Fold this sequence. Notes:
The structure holds 2 protein chains of 2 kinds. Chain A is an alpha+beta fold. Chain A is built from 11 helices and 13 strands.
Amino acid sequence: MFRWGLITVLSIGVIGSVIWGYQEHQDKNAILIQAENSYQRAFHDLTYRIDLLSDKISTVLATNTPEKLSPQLAEIWKITSDAHADVGQLPLTLLPFNKTEEFLTNIGDFSYRVAIRRLEEDPLNDDEIDYLNRLHEQANDIRRELRTVQNNVINDGLRWMDVELALATNEPSDNTIIDGLKTIEKNTEQFTETDRQGGFSFTTAREDREINLTGKQYDEGEIEQFVRDRFELESEVDLAINETGEGSDIPMYHISFETDDLYGYADVTKQGANMISYLLTREIGDRELGLHDGMNEATQLLNEIGYENVEPISSAQYEQVGVYQYVFVDDDNIYFHPDLIQVKVALDNGEIIGLNARDYIINQNTRETETYETSLTEEEAIERVNPNLDIQETRLAVIESDLGEEILTYELIGTMNDQTYRIYINSEDGFEERVELLRQTEELFR
Amino acid sequence: MKEQTVNYKFIKLLFACLMIIGISLSGSDIESYGFSEQVIQHGATGDDVIELQARLQYIGFYNGKIDGVFGWGTYWAVRNFQYEFGLEVDGLVGQKTKDTLTRASNYNEQYVKEQIRSGNKFTHYGGQDLQQQTDNQNRNQTQQGGGQQGQQQNQRAEQEATQNQSPETTATNVPKGFSQNDIQLLAQAVYSEARGEPYEGQVAVAAVILNRLDSPTFPDSIAGIIYEPLAFTAVADGQFYLTPDDTSRRAVMDAINGWDPSGGAIYYFNPDTATSSWIWSRPQIKRIGKHIFCN
């Protein structure tokens, strides 16, 4: 009797766990299939869009009328951006696929720039047509490769989940998908390299320039002393010093230190010992000072450490911390927005707990020309903006254009329908360089 | 056009004068509160800003929400007020502006704070019945689900929470257009990826995500970057959904405000656990804590 009871209970147990295991297995499979499906969708979408892209470029090449050209180029721009989004959904982060992504961005940038210019007056020149031809060739190459990979995926039932696994575990792979994508990447790399020699570079003027710093080279010991003096650190405080590697655009030392109540780091350039940035972290007590008092402290510090011609352009309070942005202002009262300094002040005692002068230091040392022309008057600039805008403040400002060049503009701040906007009008030709909506506050969702 | 603005200003001035008379007639039965010592400027938050906005609204200069954050709307209101009352127009609320404003307007602190605490939509215009200026569809009343007692407890808990938190602002400054939810996503990423790292290591991880926004080889939204397959191990294994602490949130704020200890990196990896040989081929910038940052 007892034996039969035991057998019954055990069999129910066994059957139960079999059913449970089967269901778990089903659930897991369903989830895997779902993940695989979203990869597959992104991949097939990508091949379709590259196909479309290649076709669109050839229609552009065959188009003659400028009015027709602009919308087509705009469409190419859209397709590249969609294709880029598809790549972002595939598990390719650990695979060198960035040249191909860059290629997509380049086509997008090129077509955008051409699409927005006045093609009636300034049609495509021979170089650009030549460039488009080569883009077309390259896009065709990618299309062929991708279609081949796609064919393999469909016919052999290849799974992207395997790609993910292979990449995540870094197994020496003979995965067809990975191989195909690597081929594409290799070809694109060759293409972009010859392209760079051809003079079609898409890096902006800003990225291309050499950074000049002045002053002597400091060694580790001197930098250590510099940081100790700057933060008034006692000799028993240990400093950890690291050098930057080849990837850094400026050779620097990275220093960190910890005292009883403070943790801090600082980045200091090897040449000239410029303090690029630092942050001091500590418990911040109750707020004793207002945002304005904090700004006075920040201004005083900047003057003390040699940044004299700077003016605050924005301030914001985050609980017990004030964050301020300063820019360089020259003798003609021109605001240089690229020369930015950020300062962080603790509003419990007004101590400066953070400084970031990277942009200021680099631009001040690297800028060559400083003469700008204004052929427009302030009134003429105001006439250029939307008449519905109520202009409240104006000043002259140097900004970085979309092409990375520094231009002198009239900076106009105006209001329309309870919103505040900032507009930059090129002071030479009156071109409306940029219109920004100034959003500053957001409702708390709770 | 010119005449119109003059007219408008005249009406405003007249309105303000009437207001002053109105207040002096109505006597001292309504309590008037004073500002603190600080000079209030653009970007400030807190009780002083609530009072400033309420007072400006009382005399019709400010039509926005009374939320305790000195944004652009408040800034223009202050400047218009300074202009109308013959003060120096600088957008800074110093002692003189405060005195003039206090004389010209009225502030029912109890009413304003009460409305803010209970999450009502409300205004604080002078010369109108305050009861008609609140939207009675407030959140506590619309949430009828939890029964009477539960609701009361909720209300009490909510009140306690807001009372502990001074100042009681209902908005916040947005740094560089990033919403609080973007900041939360970033904080989760930083917390799950780098919670044991030194502080600047956490700022650097946030900075890498922000640097990727500008890079042509990455998606152009915070969510796109964080959820990119295989981009972050913590997202893949679910640690991303842990609740971030204050430190990671502060690190994110520092990164958004412009600090980048990574030196412009768009990749980082832990040399002890990295399995990809490709990542080692990237030009390295520096090492912070356990992470190597590279281009």
